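FORM 12-B: Structure-to-Sequence Request
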């Protein structure tokens, strides 16, 4: 069995690693990981390893921050109504919530507005601006949106309604004519870090206000919620994003916010469970997102801003129920998409999947597109058809820009946008087939040969003897892991000491490897399919992450497996001997001097005939009538690859005597015993030729 992934190993700069190790008193392994992440100068190393409140940048380094703060404080002082205009995703929900709570806490008359995803769509719209103005608002502050709202800001200005824009998305050639436009991606913004999420930018506004109002100690509690939006928006966990998440993860499990506490509880987290980016990304954020995807995101904000525990519990339960509904809907769409793909698409000749249906809810097809891409490891586009218009989402794989691919067929779209890994679009239903055709032609001409093979990159190769509890505790300082700061992966080699399937459904793998009497346990979740390809005493390479296994008060290092590379040399030898055997078989086993017949070790003994037949009988009783040769060799105690010749000879004799029927495909043996037949071995012509 080949590894599932292409393995890449980062190149080690020995001189740089030695310098970092000596200067900062780091282990060679830790220094290597930092070098791999290009964290090599003192200020970056200090910020990375010692993330704290004092490492936040001055918020007034952000363009227009002074103007925004002045206008907001004026509104507070004059008791003018402020409306926060947010987005309906988790970033928008958390952005709106933290700014609302801080302004409310500081005496502002404040309201919020979230557009309905299904009825209004993304961004600031004219009708919303007019409605907010009619409600008496004097100042709109956008969060996680607004950088492209040029016409809507002009409309607000004509109504005498001020706007402050805070956003983190890419700017267009011109920006809105607002009182202030705060976006770290502005070309004229000199802020040191431009990868904040929308909620990160909103927090910097709070940070700036707190400096002016003299209550900076009151803002750090909001980091719990800021971290949720930061992780959910999949921004790199570097620099200030790292500080936000690292500080928040220390306090979040005992959070002050009753809404977040209720959400964590319904997400299945126990009180002592460590909060990680994975917990937020896979448990907490989807529950917040569910409301927005299926319509109204306001309950997410109500959850965070309420101080009533019972109300928070009630909202969290409803969000959980909607998430279950979203999961069911998602699964139905996924199953139908797989059926359409399997029935209608020739995957051997398809590089980009395009599938469409009028049954799909466009609020969740982005998630399903991600799952389709993961399943088939191909860029995928799923389209929801309604009234002759197909609206959809695209997801890609590393190394292929789906946005550039869409640009090659932009004339087909009513509108489209996105980036390298994800995009959205709408087009006429009649153009779907043409879209599929053009995109696959484009991919055929531009895609690299290995693009559609998933890849894993390891930081370094490590000896088992160097893996220890102190080392893993040092590596833990690199947390929190996420986009831009992946958990370090290692390659280690050794001999298989033990391997078995574990779990209620035996779908996980546990193994032990040793290298010069140094032992390491490995766990592979969902990797039981490797079991048949792994033989005890054989060499093996493992790729995975390191952690500490605590059991009954004992701590041991272990590797969490991402991929396995069994001993291919043994398998290749088996294949060579199998080909040799076929040559002998084709020559009708004639001649004592041909092939393996010169080697007395591989000529089967009478006892080996008995052992092989009995082993096959036992396998049949266990309903295992297909088995890979490597595993069968292990069961028979055949350690040398040339012993496959012994096994194959016995199978041929049994076949000639009609004791069994067998076939070999991809080095897998399938057999069926014909019981009740009594014969003698010497009735076989093959047996008589070789014995």
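FORM 12-B RESPONSE
SEQUENCE OUT:
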């Amino acid at each position: 069995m080949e590894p599932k992934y292409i393995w890449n190993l980062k190149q080690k700069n020995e001189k740089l690693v030695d310098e970092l190790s000596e200067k900062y008193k780091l282990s060679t392994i830790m220094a290597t990981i930092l070098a791999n992440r290009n964290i090599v100068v003192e200020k970056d190393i200090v910020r990375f390893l010692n993330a704290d409140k004092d490492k936040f940048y001055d918020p007034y380094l952000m363009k227009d921050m002074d103007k925004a703060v002045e206008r907001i404080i004026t509104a507070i002082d004059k008791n003018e109504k402020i409306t926060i205009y947010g987005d309906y995703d988790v970033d928008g929900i958390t952005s709106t919530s933290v700014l609302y709570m801080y302004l409310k806490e500081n005496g502002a008359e404040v309201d919020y507005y979230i557009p309905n995803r299904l009825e209004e769509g993304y961004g600031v719209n004219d009708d919303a601006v007019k409605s907010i103005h009619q409600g008496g608002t004097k100042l709109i502050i956008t969060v996680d949106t607004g950088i492209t709202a040029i016409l809507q800001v002009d409309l607000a200005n004509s109504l005498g309604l001020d706007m402050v824009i805070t956003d983190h998305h890419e700017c267009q050639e011109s920006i809105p004519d607002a009182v202030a436009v705060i976006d770290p991606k502005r070309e004229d913004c000199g802020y040191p870090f431009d990868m904040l999420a929308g909620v990160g930018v909103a927090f910097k506004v709070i940070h700036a206000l707190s400096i002016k109002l003299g209550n900076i100690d009151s803002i750090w509690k909001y980091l719990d919620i800021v971290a949720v939006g930061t992780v959910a928006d999949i921004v790199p966990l570097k620099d200030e994003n790292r500080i936000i998440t690292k500080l928040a993860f220390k306090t979040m499990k005992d959070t002050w916010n009753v809404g977040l506490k209720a959400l964590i509880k319904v997400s299945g987290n126990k009180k002592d469970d460590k909060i990680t980016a994975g917990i937020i990304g896979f448990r907490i954020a989807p529950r917040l997102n569910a409301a927005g995807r299926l319509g109204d995101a306001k309950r997410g904000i109500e959850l965070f801003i309420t101080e009533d525990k019972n109300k928070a519990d009630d909202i969290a339960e409803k969000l959980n129920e909607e998430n279950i509904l979203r999961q069911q809907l998602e699964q139905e769409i996924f199953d139908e998409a797989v059926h359409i793909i399997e029935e209608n698409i020739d995957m051997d000749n398809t590089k980009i999947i395009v599938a469409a249906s009028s049954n799909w809810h466009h609020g969740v097809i982005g998630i399903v597109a991600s799952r389709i891409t993961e399943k088939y490891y191909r860029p995928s586009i799923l389209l929801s058809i309604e009234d002759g218009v197909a609206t959809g989402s695209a997801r890609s794989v590393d190394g292929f820009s789906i946005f550039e691919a869409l640009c090659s067929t932009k004339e087909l779209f009513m509108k489209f946008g996105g980036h390298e890994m994800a995009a959205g679009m709408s087009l006429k239903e009649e153009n779907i087939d043409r879209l599929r055709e053009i995109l696959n032609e484009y991919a055929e001409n531009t895609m690299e040969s290995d693009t559609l093979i998933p890849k894993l990159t390891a930081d370094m190769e490590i000896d088992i003897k160097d893996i220890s509890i102190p080392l893993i505790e040092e590596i833990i300082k690199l947390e929190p892991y996420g986009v831009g700061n992946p958990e370090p992966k290692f390659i280690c080699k050794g001999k298989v000491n033990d391997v078995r399937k574990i779990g209620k459904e035996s779908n996980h793998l546990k193994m032990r490897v040793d290298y010069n009497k140094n032992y390491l346990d490995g766990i592979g979740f969902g990797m039981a399919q490797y079991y048949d390809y792994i033989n005890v005493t054989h060499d093996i390479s493992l790729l995975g992450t390191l952690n500490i296994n605590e059991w009954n008060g004992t701590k041991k290092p272990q590797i969490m497996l991402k991929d396995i590379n069994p001993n291919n040399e043994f398998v290749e030898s088996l294949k060579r001997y199998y080909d040799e055997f076929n040559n002998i078989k084709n020559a009708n086993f004639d001649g004592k001097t041909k092939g393996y017949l010169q080697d007395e070790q591989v000529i089967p003994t009478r006892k080996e005939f008995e052992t092989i037949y009995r082993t096959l009988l036992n396998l049949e009783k266990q309903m295992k009538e297909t088995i890979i040769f490597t595993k069968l060799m292990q069961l028979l105690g055949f350690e040398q690859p040339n012993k496959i010749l012994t096994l194959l000879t016995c199978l041929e004799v049994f076949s000639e005597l009609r004791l069994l029927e067998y076939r070999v495909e991809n080095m897998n043996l399938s057999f069926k015993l014909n019981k009740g037949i009594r014969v003698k071995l010497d009735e076989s012509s093959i047996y008589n030729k070789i014995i």
